[in-house]
Write a structure and sequence with these properties.
Pfam families: ExbD. This protein is of the alpha/beta class. The chain has 3 helices and 5 strands; from the N terminus they run αβββαβαβ.
């Protein structure tokens, strides 16, 4: 009498279905929680020392200022380019002209403490759309 002896070979295939299920569950969790993470909370930011914005020493930076009333001004080096307030479209045109004449010039934003955050962000967006590769913020040491 011959015994039926089958040899079982080791299985070399990996069952990935459980891993796909876990991945899909994690994807759904991240998709649901991501919009919740985008909401802000009102906080008082601390005053800290920071590293300076890299500006070419040979070229004076272009400074775009916004005062407490929301008026915009341009300064190039020690001279003020505009004593009269500008609107955002005029700021964009002026920044484009300055960057066309002086490519690679640093652009800095000086914002008043009492200006709303959205106004400064809009200003930074206009400056970047005008062609500035990077925009730095001017702050005071504590």
């Amino acid at each position: 009498m011959k015994m039926n002896t089958k040899r079982h070979r080791p299985m070399s295939d990996i069952n990935v279905v459980p891993y796909i299920d876990v991945m899909l569950v994690l994807l759904i969790i991240f998709m649901v929680t991501a919009p919740m993470l985008m909401q802000g909370v009102q906080v008082d930011l601390p005053k800290v020392e920071s590293d300076p914005f890299p500006v070419d020493k040979n070229k004076e930076p272009l400074i775009v200022s916004i005062d407490a009333n929301g008026a915009y001004y341009l300064e190039l080096g020690d001279q003020e380019r505009s004593k009269t307030p500008l609107d955002l479209s005029q700021v964009s045109d002026a920044v484009q002209k300055v960057l066309a004449q002086n490519p690679g010039i640093g652009v800095l934003v000086r914002g008043d403490t009492h200006v709303e955050y959205g106004a400064i962000v809009r200003l930074m967006g206009v400056v970047q759309d005008a062609g500035a590769p990077g925009v730095g913020l001017i702050t005071e040491n504590p």
